[in-house]
């Protein structure tokens, strides 16, 4: 563990400022590229130089002295980078820089540096810097790579848009109102228009928002985000889902939402459990719909978080129908449905050129104790049938498929708590799967997959959570 004190994160303006780089290798070239973009006047001192440095010198974007450095080189510099592979040379340059009152960074000694260069994610004028005080630079680079994927490029356009209106906002609104105004702009419908590539509409909306800002009522209508939370693994959330989860004021969530996913919601958001699992409903569907309307009319940003995809046996269509009727703005964010997520984690491809040329999603939910389905169509070879909410109706399903023509030894599997660390796979046939399931205690969400593709799990199964027994088709 480093004994150096923690650093203070700063962004420094270097346009037109003299900066010395001692060393001409790849590390130096990476630093120099960023310095040139910042507008610094770069001087490089090194006997040899990377081809990029030579090209910049020939293009007069920097000055290169083709020799070893000396103490006089640090005079009148704003910053010094000692980036050679010679420990002694770096130490000498660092000592000379400090004697001249110039801050220095050494490539070979983070503790011996006055400043560190962070890993940076840049979106035009917006920059995100990641550093570890020199203790784990590789980890900082890993986080930068992840943020590169997580942070949409459009955030740079949003920052540019805000910059273009900054002075107008300052002139029109008193200081006490500016923060709330910018929060509505940068974390609301205008921002979503930018993310969707509708820059012209975003500017028009921002003009209107600025014109009406002083008379806008706090009771303006809010918005509802109908978001699919996927089958359970938080890594399967979409970028858009995560962004809206962080924006919401209040979240209405179902029982099937994994705690790890709910933890990603803004910590200050109000959480309301509305149930909806099998036959155990905390709130009837009509009450959930009315609650969303009431909260949005109170100006709240409402996150309706549902497992899987809200439009695949999630009653999402019913919910947004009432929102549309009430004139409530809403967005729909699809999620990875349990069928594709759980099948993939179980090593069961839903389609396969040799076994299944189509796939059908079916609800297995009993209505008044019966299951009225098109059994003749479902009991066909050459396809995969996925039953949602099928645990209670498993014996009925397996018997009906056999009655309408599928063989007793036709492959079938239950995926329990799919995509999570608790995932279990129960593999069998239409004849014996109900008995296998009856011997187990099953409380998690369960998906039934029927078809010859089930056999492929033995060779394609890749996700094997620690402590969970392997599926055994003979027990």
Account of the protein in words:
- The protein has helices at residues 26-37, 51-58, 87-99, 137-150, 154-172, 175-186, 189-195, 199-211, 239-247, 259-262, 285-297, 316-325, 338-345, 375-378, 394-403, 433-438, 457-460; strands at residues 18-22, 41-45, 63-65, 79-82, 103-106, 119-123, 126-130, 223-228, 250-254, 270-275, 301-306, 330-333, 359-363, 384-388, 411-416, 424-429, 446-450.
- The protein is of the alpha/beta class.
- Helix 11 crosses helix 12 (316-325).
- The longest helix is centred in the middle third of the chain and has 19 residues, at 154-172.
Helix content: 25-40%
**Residue-averaged pLDDT, rounded?**
91
| Oligomeric form | single chain
What is the domain tally? 4
CATH superfamily of the largest domain: Tetrapyrrole methylase, C-terminal domain
What are its keywords?
4 domains, 5-stranded parallel beta sheet, single chain, Rossmann fold, 17 helices, 475 residues, Cobalt-precorrin-4 Transmethylase, domain 1, alpha/beta, 35% helix
Layout of secondary structure:
Layout lengths: L17 E5 L3 H12 L3 E5 L5 H8 L4 E3 L13 E4 L4 H13 L3 E4 L12 E5 L2 E5 L6 H14 L3 H19 L2 H12 L2 H7 L3 H13 L11 E6 L10 H9 L2 E5 L4 H4 L7 E6 L9 H13 L3 E6 L9 H10 L4 E4 L4 H8 L13 E5 L11 H4 L5 E5 L5 H10 L7 E6 L7 E6 L3 H6 L7 E5 L6 H4 L15
Parallel strand pairs: 1-2, 1-4, 2-3, 4-5, 8-11, 8-12, 9-10, 9-11, 13-14
Antiparallel strand pairs: 6-7, 14-17, 15-16, 15-17
């Amino acid at each position: 563990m480093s004994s150096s004190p923690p650093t203070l994160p700063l962004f420094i303006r270097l346009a037109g400022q003299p900066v010395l780089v001692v060393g001409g290798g790849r590390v130096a070239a990476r630093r120099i590229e960023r310095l040139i973009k910042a507008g610094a006047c770069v001087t490089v001192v090194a006997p040899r130089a990377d081809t990029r440095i030579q090209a910049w010198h020939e293009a007069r974007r920097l000055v290169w002295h083709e020799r070893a450095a000396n103490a006089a080189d640090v005079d009148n510099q704003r910053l010094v980078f000692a980036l050679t592979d010679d420990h002694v040379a770096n130490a000498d340059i660092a000592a000379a820089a400090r004697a001249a009152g110039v801050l220095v960074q050494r490539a070979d000694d983070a503790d011996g540096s006055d400043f560190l260069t962070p890993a940076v994610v840049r979106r035009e004028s917006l920059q995100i810097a990641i550093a570890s005080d020199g203790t784990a630079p590789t980890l900082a680079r890993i986080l930068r790579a992840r943020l590169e994927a997580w942070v949409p490029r459009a955030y740079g356009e949003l920052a540019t848009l805000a910059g273009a209106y900054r002075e107008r906002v300052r002139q029109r609104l008193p200081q006490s109102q500016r923060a709330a105004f910018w929060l509505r702009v940068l974390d609301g419908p205008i921002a979503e228009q930018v993310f969707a590539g509708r820059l012209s509409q975003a500017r028009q909306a921002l003009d209107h928002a600025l014109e009406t800002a002083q008379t806008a009522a706090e009771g303006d209508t809010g918005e509802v985000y109908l978001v699919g939370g996927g089958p359970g693994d938080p890594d399967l959330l979409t970028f858009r889902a995560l962004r809206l989860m962080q924006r919401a004021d209040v979240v209405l969530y179902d029982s099937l939402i994994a705690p790890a996913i709910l933890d990603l919601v803004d910590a200050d958001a109000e959480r309301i459990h509305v149930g909806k699992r099998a036959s155990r409903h905390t709130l009837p569907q009509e009450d959930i719909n009315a609650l969303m309307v009431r909260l949005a009319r109170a100006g709240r940003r409402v996150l309706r978080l549902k497992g899987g995809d809200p439009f695949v046996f999630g009653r999402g269509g019913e919910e947004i129908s009432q929102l549309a009727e009430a004139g409530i703005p809403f967005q729909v964010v699809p999620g990875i449905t349990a069928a594709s997520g759980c099948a993939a984690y179980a090593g069961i491809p839903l389609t396969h050129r040799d076994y299944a040329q189509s796939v059908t999603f079916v609800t297995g939910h009993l209505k008044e104790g019966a299951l009225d389905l098109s059994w003749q169509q479902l009991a066909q070879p050459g396809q995969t049938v996925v039953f949602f909410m099928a645990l209670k109706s498993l014996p009925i399903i397996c018997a009906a498929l056999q009655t309408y023509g599928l063989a007793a030894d036709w492959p079938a599997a239950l995926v329990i708590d799919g995509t999570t660390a608790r995932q279990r796979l129960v593999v069998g046939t239409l004849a014996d799967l109900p008995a296998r399931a009856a011997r187990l205690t099953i409380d998690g969400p369960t998906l039934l997959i029927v078809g010859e593709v089930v056999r492929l799990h033995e060779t394609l199964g890749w996700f094997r959570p620690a402590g969970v027994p392997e599926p055994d088709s003979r027990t």
